[in-house]
Amino acid sequence: MKFERTLAICVDMNGCPNRCKHCWLGDLPNLIVNDKTATKIVKLFKPFFANITFYSWLREPDFTADYKARWLKDNKLSTIKPQRFELASYYTIVRDKEYAEWLKMIGTKKVQLTFFGLQAMTDKYVGRKGAYEELIAATKILKANDIEARWQIFINEENKDDVSRLLDVAATHNVTDIFVHEGSCDGNNRKLYDIRINKSNIPDKVKPHYLNYDNILSEAECYALLKDDDSYFVPKNKDTIVIYITSDLNVYFNFTNPSPAWAIGNIIDDEISDLVRKIVALDVPALKFARNVKVSELVKLYGDPASDKVFSIDDYKMYLLNNYLDEQFNNKVK
Fold first, then answer.
1. What are 139-174's pLDDT values in tens digits?
2. Which of 98, 132, 171, 275 has a C-alpha 20 to 30 A away from that of 115?
3. What's the CA gap between 325 and 300, in Å, rounded?
4. Whose CA is closest to 265, among 256, 254, 276?
5. Residue ranges per domain, the chain?
6. What are the phi and psi torsion angles at 196 (to 5°)?
7. Residue 84: which of 51, 115, 62, 116 has the closest Cα?
């Protein structure tokens, strides 16, 4: 029996050049998954799903010397063509003069670049010296190839003044597509909870560029909305089921950062039929816990009714749930 829904398989085949302090996936190891293994993974799942879309990356796309051939292989492994999502490797943009031309050739019209302020802050949060200069250089290279650069800027209490100054830098480079946000609060960004931006401290200069500014909430506002909420926060797949496979071949949903509670299984260690069953039935420890703890209980356990830290309501629920999972499951797994 084949399931009619599309399965998107995203494999961390080549790792990432960066160790970003905001990365919602956390610090995954940079191991290499070879082409033979990637092909095997798709062959394992194909008998169970009517359509497969294959992506050879979780973090930095095209972070491999054979990015042209890899894109063709991704398409060949897929029954529904993978999307670009306006993402590209700025590491490769500044090191391979053919890359931007190739991006243009395959139809790329815009590429998103991520900043954390000016040079010192961006290099610190990317985890690599020279990252800021590379982002500026990538902006120029993209424009020279008639590709628009979109600047994504993460803000917190430590870099908020830098973010204001970065807007002036954007203007000098004629970058107009800019959005600022606090990021989700899982993975590495959950470790930055203590310096999460306070709603009252978002600079006025930044507000016009802040993503969905009119709808962001302080933690205190989230707490007030949820303290009597007797529903359950149970993430689920949309039309396409998306799974992430890390380089150690562990399988996760794309709901949040990989952790033991969210593990579906392992490509090598588990039978494919059981992996498929768990994927379709959403059978992982995290969701079993989620189905048995009300949102009101979570917010009273882990929420701060006096906090001005900024959240979207769903990101806040995930933050609360992951705190609960750490206490109830992750910290008990040896």
1. 999 999 999 999 999 999 999 999 999 999 999 999
2. 98
3. 15
4. 276
5. 3-216+237-282
6. -60, 140
7. 62
